[in-house]
Write a structure and sequence with these properties.
The protein is globular. The longest helix is centred in the middle third of the chain and has 13 residues, at about 125-135. By secondary structure, the protein is α/β, with parallel strands linked by helices. It starts with 5 loop residues before the first strand and ends with a helix. The chain has a single domain (about 5-195), classed as Aconitase, domain 4. The chain has eight helices and seven strands, in the order βααβαβαβαβββααα. It has a seven-stranded mixed beta sheet with strand order 4-3-2-1-5-6-7. Keywords: Amino-acid biosynthesis, Branched-chain amino acid biosynthesis, Leucine biosynthesis, Lyase. Pathway: Amino-acid biosynthesis; L-leucine biosynthesis; L-leucine from 3-methyl-2-oxobutanoate: step 2/4. One of its GO terms (molecular function) is 3-isopropylmalate dehydratase activity.
Length: about 200
């Protein structure tokens, strides 16, 4: 995984509540066995008509947000099934950070374990970001070390994150790589067990 410390980008405002994992990545695209290649299917049925043409008024089809790395959504983001493909598709599309007031627990955990930073802010703060992002291109800087989101208007918001996940994301570790940080301790333990 890639380490996350600071991410500066315009935001993509997805002003929708209760976005479930089937809307994030629809079930017909789950046959792949790799973690990559899912980005082109992100919000597929919101992005494309049945004939494959773009739905012009959907935010991901707006050229202003083409290189955005920060998705801002409304409450209960990632509800529904527990598929890991949802954070994979968000990451593969190019987002590193999702900001919302609340998340489904399993989705939130899956984000952390796959290198996507989900930030919880107050509803009023998220609505402020969404309003700014819908009016014009609005840039923010996310600082994981300081646990802040700062808008180009100078307004700053603080967020909480479990120290365990913060450490993983700052170092770009998944849980296997985290285990390898204790390799010397594990080897010493195994050696003691052989001598016992």
């Amino acid at each position: 995984m890639e380490p996350i410390n600071r991410v500066e980008s315009i935001i993509t405002p997805l002003n929708r509540k209760n976005v479930d994992t089937d809307q994030i990545i629809s079930k017909e695209f789950l046959k792949r066995i790799e973690r990559t290649g899912f980005g082109k299917y992100l919000f597929y049925h919101w992005r494309f008509n049945s004939d494959g043409t773009e739905i012009k008024d959907f935010v991901l089809n707006d050229d202003r947000f083409e290189n955005s790395k920060i998705l801002v959504a409304h409450e209960n983001f990632g509800c529904g099934s527990s598929r890991e493909h949802a954070p994979w598709s968000i990451l593969d599309y190019g987002f590193n950070v999702v900001i919302a007031p609340s998340y489904a627990d399993i989705f939130y955990s899956n984000c952390m374990k796959n290198g996507l930073l989900p930030i919880r802010l107050e509803i009023s703060e998220v609505e402020e970001l969404l309003a700014n992002g819908q009016q014009e291109q609005f840039s923010v800087q996310v600082d994981l070390k300081e646990q802040t989101v700062t808008g180009e208007d100078g307004k700053s918001y603080s967020f909480e994150i479990d120290p365990y996940y913060k450490n993983m994301l700052l170092n770009g570790w998944d849980e296997i790589e985290l285990t390898f940080q204790y390799e010397e301790h594990i080897a010493n333990y195994e050696k003691r067990q052989q001598l016992a």
